[in-house]
Predict the structure.
Amino acid sequence: MPNEIIEGILEAIRLIFTFDPEVWGVIEVSFRVSLTSTFLAALVALPIGSFIGLRKFKGKNEITNLINTFMGFPPVVMGLLIYLLLSRNGPFGELGLLYSTSAMIIAQFLLAIPIIMGTAKAAIESVDPILKETVLSLGANERQLWWELIKHSKKSIIAGFLVAFGQAISEVGAVIIVGGNIRWETRTFTTSIVLQTRMGEFGMAIALGVILISITFIVNYGLTRLQARVD
Amino acid sequence: MNLLEIRNIHKEYYKGDKSAIIVLSNINFSVKKGECFIIIGPNGSGKTTLLKLIGLLELPTFGQILYNNKNLINISRKEKVNYRRKFSFVRQKPVVRNTSVFNNIAYGLKVRGMRSIDYQEEVNEIIQFSGLKGMEKKNARSLSGGEMQRVAIAMNFVISPELYLLDEVSANLDSMNLKLLDDFIMRIKQDKEKTIIMSTHDPLEAIKYADRIAVLNNGQITQIGRPNEIFTAPKDEFTALFVGYENILYGLAELDKATGLSQIKINDLIITAASQQEGEVKVCIRPESIGIAKEPPKNTSYRNTFKGFIENIRELGNICHLIVRCQSEKFLITITELSRKNLKLEIDSEVFINFKATDVKIL
């Protein structure tokens, strides 16, 4: 077994530096799907989540509970639901999106929304209430207050993006169901590792795992640096 | 006409177990334009909550807040912002935004839609006045507590609101910052268009600035009146204990070049004070600093000696309060019951009161 790990790491280095087209294809699909879904989810979830955090209204506790529940929503179940919706006999079957990166983006988008929404809401709520009052008493309207609080809690909000992206890139259950693990098209790191392991190609599987971890590390490192810079 | 009218304000908070804590109850008062109205009370009496309600930062459980005869409860969010922009709210422990001193001070003008080139001059003027020159570009969060308080005061004063709400702003300030705050408050008081509602737990500060004082205890206003009423005729024991007794007289001070001391003319009395102030002043003398005798004192170091008669005596156990009238003015004097008996002081006794020039506090 240790031999296989070492072989896997050597294989990983070889695959990356020989620009193996299949590996680079997998990297490209993985990142395209996860970045797109996280970005789109942020566009939707950040305004809504921060708005929920900003205001007090009836039913806020229930909405909070709902968001928290969906934060831990099982990806496989999400994959199943999207599958049923997009399959030929499903309500959106005519769109023909099943087994495409679009389907994968939809699934990961829906999984990322509660994470970003929940963290944005918590970030806004955790701002010192005296700062909120100070900003209001200086004459800010709701939109100006909102912007001020976003600026103030950007670190926590970026942390939310990181968690959502981390979940998306390492997720396997949903993308394998709705993407179908089609070579050159919808194969990602994770689905590929599942396949290679099943076929006994441990070297390739470990290689992909190492690449996945390294790239995720680099992305996180970059975002963390950004997080430190914004302060 | 009243600028602000508080009608039957009641505020309670609910704890986790749904039981209510009453913070304010049955609050009624009104404030006129140009007035300096001071709310005085101990910590936890509800001063901050009351100011927050007026500043539209919280809602009362019930009651009305009328500003220029318009009820501010249940107005739309937009209207609320418009009214908040007529007010400012300076708090005891300031919070500044995580940006430069200049941007912090300019914020109130910026959110009102002013353009950067239009407010440069105003902001720079207030920076100069606040002694923050040279710190404009520093992050306000990196300043010391006192400097931060100066920024907080400056950012509220630059917007020049109609109504200033000052919540224990002088607490925790060193003498230099107190002086600055004093300059600011005096500057506002001169402008008769500006109104101040201020809370404090310092009775002397209240005497200094107040046109009227409200005493807040345990969420209820126990007394409202001019400073001398509150201090010389406290309605209840709490007020008496809290404010302490103080003789407050209003007069005109003139500097006596020969002695270097102020001569304060109060109707027919002239009081000498160890101060160099001139013009209209408030004179404070603590009752225990005043001595009393039946004979005119011979050869004493007291600069102030007046003849009068005892108008009233209040016995309070071991000590007693004497009200002594000297011509137009009344003085409150505390002595021990024993010395009163020894001196055989009764109502209508003719007496001589005396106090040192250094015991006269000028505000």
Notes: The radius of gyration of chain A is 21 Å. Chain A is about 80% helix and 0% strand. The domain at 2-229 of chain A is CATH 1.10.3720.10 (MetI-like fold). The mean pLDDT of chain A is 89.
